[in-house]
């Protein structure tokens, strides 16, 4: 097997992989989309919402904001965020304040809701680590490939939670662990 970096940017990477079958190439692609764990806001508690939108609508928008997912955090970690804002203004993702310095919103300029004069929004949120098998908000990015002869050219684009090179590494690590589990179970058959 031969892996080469064709092009690398801040949010994307292009790789070529030679010496694997289409089955493995597709397993890598699927694992990088569905199996890599990232933080996403999963619970929103409203203390005040005098806006014109329902709590559920605002909670859904907040849940889709990409959250940085550095190394060293685990599936059972929970990160708390808070937001307090008063109109007239557009409430932006950068107003979500994390209790953990390393974990925060990826992009500060995602609009959440527009508040009119006198309208207030005060919430607390908790972010958890999960993968896209549970919900699309945990998906770290997109991955695709094209086959040219016996070479697979991969394109990995991150949504910002994890660098693209790390997405592919974590995807392969997950595949290895899943194959170990299959091997262990198959020995009992």
Q: What is the residue-averaged pLDDT?
A: 95
Helix and strand content put the structural class at alpha+beta
Helices and strands, in order, run as EEHEHEEEEEEEH
Largest sheet: 4 strands, antiparallel
Uncertain residue segments? none
Strand order of the biggest β-sheet: 1-2-10-9
The number of domains is 2
Detailed description of the structure:
The protein has 189 residues and is α+β, with helices and mostly antiparallel strands. It folds into two domains: 83 residues, 2-Layer Sandwich (Gyrase A, domain 2), CATH 3.30.1360; 93 residues, RNA Polymerase Alpha Subunit, Chain A, domain 2 (Beta Complex), CATH 2.170.120.12. The protein is built from three helices and ten strands. A four-stranded antiparallel sheet has the order 1-2-10-9. A four-stranded antiparallel sheet has the order 3-8-4-6, covered by helices on one side. Strand 1 and strand 2 form a beta hairpin. Helix 1 crosses helix 3. The radius of gyration is 20 Å and the shape is elongated. The mean pLDDT is 95.
Quick summary of this structure?
This protein is 24% helix and 39% strand. It is α+β, with helices and mostly antiparallel strands and 189 residues long. It folds into 2 domains: 2-36 and 140-187, 2-Layer Sandwich (Gyrase A, domain 2), CATH 3.30.1360; 39-131, RNA Polymerase Alpha Subunit, Chain A, domain 2.
């Amino acid at each position: 097997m031969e892996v080469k970096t064709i092009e690398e940017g801040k949010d994307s990477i292009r790789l070529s992989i030679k010496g694997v079958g289409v089955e493995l190439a597709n397993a890598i692609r699927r694992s990088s989309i569905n199996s890599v764990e990232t933080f996403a806001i999963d619970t929103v508690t409203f203390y005040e919402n005098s806006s014109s939108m329902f709590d559920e609508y605002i909670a859904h928008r907040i849940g889709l904001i990409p959250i940085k997912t550095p190394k060293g955090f685990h599936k059972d970690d929970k990160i708390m965020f808070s937001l307090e804002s008063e109109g007239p203004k557009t409430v932006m993702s950068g107003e979500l304040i994390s209790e953990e310095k390393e974990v925060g919103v990826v992009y500060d300029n995602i609009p959440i809701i527009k508040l009119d004069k006198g309208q207030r929004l005060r919430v607390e949120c908790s972010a958890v680590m999960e993968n896209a098998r549970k919900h699309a908000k945990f998906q770290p990015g997109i991955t695709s490939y094209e086959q040219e002869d016996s070479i697979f050219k991969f394109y990995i684009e991150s949504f910002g939670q994890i660098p693209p090179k790390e997405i592919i590494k974590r995807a392969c690590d997950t595949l290895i662990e899943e194959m170990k589990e299959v091997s262990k179970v198959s020995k009992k058959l």
